[in-house]
Amino acid sequence: MFIYSTMVRPIFWTVIGLIYALIIAGAPIWAEDLGLQMTWWKWILAALWYLLVSFTFAGSFTLLAEKEPGAWYRFLGFHLALCVLLGAVIWFLI
Question: What angle do CA 19, 23, 26 make, to 5 degrees?
Answer without folding.
Answer: 135
